[in-house]
From TrEMBL:
It comes from Marinobacter daqiaonensis. This is 4-hydroxythreonine-4-phosphate dehydrogenase. Keywords: Cobalt, Cytoplasm, Magnesium, Metal-binding, NAD, NADP, Oxidoreductase, Pyridoxine biosynthesis, Zinc. One of its GO terms (molecular function) is cobalt ion binding. Its main location: cytoplasm. The gene is pdxA. Binds 1 divalent metal cation per subunit. Can use ions such as Zn(2+), Mg(2+) or Co(2+). The active site is located at the dimer interface. A divalent metal cation binds at H165, H210, H265.
Length: 338
């Protein structure tokens, strides 16, 4: 019998909707073992404000994890300064980073099979004088890897990015053979490792309108993208493209693909979010651990109202569990145990 998966869930920005999404999760029967990595005092304060009734159970590694409705295992992280919904406090910034550190280290140590992250507020952390550009970069540095890949996914579509949070004017200079090669290799390998796709089929978008239209609308496709893809094809990676992004996201192409590789953030993600906002998941590829996240922000205006939708969190948990199970199978020797 396959052993159950245990996931760490970080509650994110204390003033946002993350803490109450964790509490909403606890009100339901769960098929996964979830440990919330957060301040127990924060969770208690938020449920008091909202009139909820959740039994918060202090948890340490080695202890059993409850899946019963009305109960929530909490790995208590101290240091939260204020617990008010909707009002951010830079004094909470180190606490937020401590939750990420505890969850990630637990994954590296084998305590957790993966981590799921509720949204954080990057601006507030920076206001505290702490350089922080996001979960993805934080985990990249913490895990000591050279390159990570951001991928958003729904049940029907996966979109990975060559570049992420860059000003549009900086994107062309960042589209290099080295970056395309690293990102594509990670995407191909992690589709196998974490998603169980034996021979991934990847569609690659061009950078320019109409994929450069033979050089008339830009030469990046001719000079950089296509030669790089050709070298990667020689390694056995199944790539189609570069394709015009305005027609790539159609059934003609997508029906025969496992993922799309977009050149920049707003080339691929608006399509995916239109197709599945609220049930999409953000996945970080290239890490030695499983990490998924919700596809939305802190929603400070909704915090404490009880109106936050937990749909994306449910998806992030479900995908995290699936990724952890696929990784076990991938690591299992033929005919043996993992």
């Amino acid at each position: 019998m396959t052993s159950p998966v245990t996931l760490a869930l970080t509650a994110g920005e204390p003033a946002g909707i993350g803490p109450e999404l964790c509490l909403q999760l606890a009100l339901e029967e769960r098929g996964q073992r979830i440990v919330v990595v957060a301040s127990q005092a924060l969770l208690q304060a938020r449920q008091n404000d909202m009139g909820l009734s959740v039994q918060l159970e202090s948890w340490q590694p080695g202890q059993p994890v409850t899946c019963d409705a009305g109960h929530l295992a909490v790995m208590d992280i101290s240091g939260v300064a204020t617990t008010s919904a909707g009002r951010t406090d830079p004094g909470n910034s180190q606490y937020v980073l401590d939750t990420l550190t505890a969850a990630a280290q637990g994954c590296l140590d084998g305590v957790f099979d993966g981590m799921v992250t509720a949204p954080v507020h990057k601006g507030v952390i920076n206001e505290a004088g702490i350089a922080f550009s996001g979960h993805t970069e934080f985990l990249q540095e913490f895990c000591g890897v050279e390159r990570v890949v951001m991928m958003l996914a729904t049940e029907e579509l996966r979109v990975a990015l060559v570049t992420t949070h860059l000003p549009l004017r900086d994107v062309p200079g960042a589209i290099t053979p080295e970056r395309i090669t690293q990102v594509t290799r990670i995407l191909d390998q992690d589709l196998k490792t974490f998603f169980g796709v034996a021979h991934p089929r990847i569609l690659v978008a061009g950078l320019n309108p109409h994929a450069g239209e033979g050089g008339h609308l830009g030469r990046e496709e001719i000079d950089i993208i296509e030669p790089t893809l050709e070298r990667l094809r020689s390694e056995g990676i199944r790539l189609t493209g570069p394709l015009p992004a305005d027609t790539l996201f159609t059934p003609h192409w997508l029906d025969d693909a496992d993922a799309v590789l977009a050149m920049y953030h707003d080339q691929g993600l608006p399509v995916l979010k239109f197709q599945g906002f609220g049930r999409a998941v953000n996945v970080t590829l290239g890490l030695p651990i499983v990490r998924t996240s919700v596809d939305h922000g802190t929603a400070l205006d909704l915090a404490g109202t009880g109106k936050a939708d937990a749909g994306s969190l449910h998806t992030a948990i479900r995908v995290g569990e699936q990724m952890a199970r696929h990784r076990r199978e991938h690591r299992k020797p033929p005919g043996g145990k993992p």
